[in-house]
Amino acid sequence: MAAGSDSQAAAGVADDVDEGEALRVCHATERHGRGVRTLIPRTAGEVIHRFEGTIGPDLKQHTLQVSPGRHISDTRFIGYLSHSCDPNCRLDMDRFELVALRAAPADGLLTIDYAATEDVLYRQFACHCGAAACRRWITGRAEPANAEGQAWLAGEGS
Ligand SMILES: [Zn+2]
Question: Is the entire prediction scored with pTM above 0.90?
């Protein structure tokens, strides 16, 4: 595939690249510990990836909620997706698919809205995604902002 493309990934960076899936986990982005990039352009509605992993009762850092009380871990890619309040992807937890919500360019960072799947987050956090509708403090969909988040939101703009 892609004969004639000789560009080499930066040496020494141990990204997890899967040419078949055309995805890679990048180990260092500016604001996030890790992220997932697509190696090829994606179109809206495209099923980018079908995921699998281990489903159990525990909420952990890189798990994702499949249904109430069930969390998937040990996934190859989706546990490392970055959050955006205006994401370019969504997770279909019935079909176990990562689906593009809109077009994404080659090497584009893939994002999901964590609150779309998670009732409670492993850790709430301040968001700098830059979306016009950024919620600024990210929680699960079924939990209020914690004390740190309330202070963050109250202190904004002052
Ligand atoms: Zn945001």
Answer: no
